[in-house]
Amino acid sequence: xxxxxxxxxxxxxxxxxxxxxxxxxxxxxxxxxxxxxxxxxxxxxxxxxxxxxxxxxxxxxxxxxxxxxxxxxxxxxxxxxxxxxxxxxxxxxxxxxxxxxxxxxxxxxxxxxxxxxxxxxxxxxxxxxxxxxxxxxxxxxxxxxxxxxxxxxxxxxxxxxxxxxxxxxxxxxxxxxxxxxxxxxxxxxxxxxxxxxxxxxxxxxxxxxxxxxxx
Length: 215
Description:
Elements: H1 2-32, H2 64-69, E1 74-77, H3 78-87, E2 96-99, E3 105-108, H4 110-113, H5 115-118, H6 130-133, H7 150-155, H8 179-186, E4 205-208, E5 210-211
Antiparallel strand pairs: 1-4, 2-3, 3-5
């Protein structure tokens, strides 16, 4: 009995490692062949599941989002809007009328003129807002002029102090005589740093005002 038990233990001690080694060899050779990188492996062919043809996605036409966002607004150039505002006596809250790009009569208020002075990237891509240089800090503002508010614009340029009245930049309501027209559209010196050809002759085209309803 003792001899049989010893024999069994010997078989287990020496036979089990050999069996495990042979098992591993069979698995490896059966799947990878006699190569170390499995280049001779005889694996079943991979069958790809076909993907149904996808319908190409379509994007809205260029400017569609802007048109929807400003639905009901009028399309107008900066020159036309500024000219109409100045020629109407540059009111602060009362509406003034202008001709839109489609020749419709529209009306707006100064609140829709103001972004032309205070909004960056409007006149051209990368443009600073006019009010970045022409602001309420008259002591350091370019041309000692404030374009950040209605009161600042009315106060004019070349002011000696925040409380002082400066040079009229609106031509007294005559657009062709205004400094604003001269610098922006005649001499095209502003906005400051404008690259050649970056700004259209009549300035940027924007959405402003609403059509005037005929009675």
